[in-house]
UniProtKB/TrEMBL annotation, chains A, B:
Protein name in the entry: Transcriptional regulator
A GO molecular function held by the record: DNA-binding transcription factor activity
Transcription recorded as keyword: yes
A Pfam family hit: Peripla_BP_3
Gene3D superfamilies: 3.40.50.2300, lambda repressor-like DNA-binding domains (1.10.260.40)
PROSITE patterns per the UniProt record, alphabetical: HTH_LACI_1, HTH_LACI_2
Top-level taxon of the source organism: Bacteria
Length: 342, 342
DNA sequence: TTGAAAGCGTTACCAA
DNA sequence: TTGGTAACGCTTTCAA
């Protein structure tokens, strides 16, 4: 008896199928120059022997690594590191991992690279960069090192077409329509002052929607690092004024809970006296009492599209175009259901 | 002019340093058979040229991939997938990524493999398996395929010594001591009925602590899938009884908020009428009102230790021993500060 | 203490 | 439509 082979190689497959390794390789890589009959025979042997191409060997030859990185931004609450602090980031991660696996790629979660050294250490074929800020330094480092990048949401002030996102403006507009339909006549917005496309879009959507419907604009700022308490404070001021809003929306994750607290302290009933909507969904909004209406920004869809687009970019596709995945889904919950549901 | 080299290789380094590739390799791999002078010279060239060994090439030769996987369990709330739903998992992830990077490894987040095929597709050198349940199927699949595994927390009913964790019993005991010190005389526990070492340990610690101090045991179960509402219901029953507890601890993530809600509905003051402690910390407990005392189970330390232990196991170390990282840290917050702080 | 040569498993290139 | 051969960058083995 021969000593047991430690691993099935392409050579074993070739011998067993009576073809050359080249042919096997061409078949599994869909090079399309094979006789269907040969193809079927080889694929059967592949399955029987349970062979899978070795990533390292393939990578050595092709120069690819079979790994892409998902770089999440440092969110305000994440403290000492890049982290998954929000449901949005979590679902983004899930979507990216599953899409990558479908492509036969591995997905590496990594801190956003700060310099060339970080980029070199990354050792991946490409990067999905989430929520780049205006003039994003990591993106500059990535570009300088020739690393293919696709961003989730566009970078403010950049015309790079390699990005994926939802139609932020349409999404916010839909939410405002819903509030109006439920009887809101004075809608305030709690937002933040940050160099991100997201905030620009939501603010623009709010402004144009107000103009369109003859609503007064009523805006206040919250700190992203401290959304709940600053939102509570800002809401208290607004709601105690002579002409208080009858609905508040916010585009800052976590701020809606602050509005809720302020309303409760002022003995306002929700949704009768005040409706609340969040432009970013999350589990806490679902379990809040009452549950808060929110926009599901389709993070899993966005992540999947980003991974696929990145794959195209890595493979040298030079026909880029932003991909708008959808308009988000409005998750209508008690906080804005003033009338009976249909 | 020669065409630009696409990548610096070990050969380039060797030529520039006037040695052979073998020598360079031996130096960067600390084989220790080199003249210190040669060594210094070579290392300088390595730095100057910015060379880094290519993972695929090295892997092809050594059979290693330079990647380890972190497999998180399907938490109750995670729905359709393995996810980071808790602060604990998030911090575990951060710790693992950073420890892996320090080891020159990449860390891959992956769903827990369900069968042999999944294990094969994983293509990693080893796996850190978080919170294996009793008779864990994925661990069996991993073992059958010869995949090195280290678990975070031990598997109930298994005597596999390759695990890392904190001293759960000591941690819970410390929390109970603190409550007693603050005046608690009747401490209830909200726990769950699941085949995990964690629950066994916390329940055992609670039981023996009660016996030791002559406290009556007062236990209720909550559903892990629905911790907040089931905890609220169970607490309401307990707190409305003839002999209500004056303190409640729970080892289920999210349950403490339910206790809080029940107490609020019953107009109990916290901590004066009721103290609340959670055996798992999380951001929501910090921002609850009042903030809730909790155990920090040192997830980052645990993850780091797990990665290092896994590395040892992969490298053939056969001198295993469970690693107890610590006793957790008791984060004392308002919910249990009945007396003035020291 | 060092180096030459032989691979590791795969794919690219060119010839048949 | 196929196959032979060389090469990817590194480590290992063995000889000097």
């Amino acid at each position: 008896m021969a000593p047991p082979k430690s691993r099935v190689t392409i050579k074993d497959v070739a011998v067993a199928a009576g073809v050359s390794p080249t042919t096997v390789s061409d078949i599994v890589n869909a090079k399309g120059r094979v006789d269907p009959e040969t193809r079927a025979r080889v694929l059967k042997v592949v399955a029987d022997l349970g062979w899978r191409p070795l990533r390292s060997a393939r990578g050595l030859r092709t120069g690819r690594r079979g790994i892409i990185a998902l770089c999440l931004p440092r969110r305000p609450r994440s403290g000492d590191s890049w982290v998954l602090t929000s449901d949005y980031d979590m679902r983004l991660t899930i979507g990216a991992v599953s899409a990558a696996m479908d492509q036969g790629q591995l997905l590496l979660m990594a801190p956003t690279p700060a310099n060339d050294e970080d980029v070199a250490r990354l050792e991946v074929d490409g990067v999905v960069l989430v929520d780049p800020e205006e003039g994003d330094l990591s993106r500059i480092a990535l570009r300088r090192n020739g690393m293919p990048v696709v961003t989730v949401d566009r970078e403010l002030g950049s015309d790079d077409p390699w990005w994926v996102g939802v139609d932020n403006k349409a999404a916010v507009s839909n939410m405002l329509d819903h509030l109006r339909e439920q009887g809101a006549r004075r809608v305030a917005m709690l937002t933040a002052d940050s160099p991100w496309a997201w905030f620009e879009d939501t603010q623009a959507a709010y402004a144009s929607w107000c103009a369109r419907h003859g609503f007064e604009k009523l805006t206040a700022l919250v700190e992203r690092a401290n959304p709940e308490s600053t939102a509570a404070a800002a809401s208290t001021v607004m709601l105690s004024s002579d002409a208080p809003p009858d609905a508040v929306i916010t585009d800052v994750y976590g701020a809606a809970l602050g509005v809720l607290r302020a309303a409760r302290d002022l003995r306002l009933r929700i949704p009768q006296d005040l409706m609340i909507g969040s432009a970013v969904d999350g589990h806490v909004l679902e379990t809040a009492s009452p549950p808060i209406t929110a926009l599901d920004l389709q993070p899993m869809d966005v992540a999947r599209a980003a991974v696929l687009l990145l794959e195209r970019r890595i493979n040298g596709d030079d026909n880029p175009a932003p991909i708008i995945v959808g308009e988000g889904y409005l998750r209508i919950r008690t906080s804005t259901q003033r009338r009976d549901g249909r």
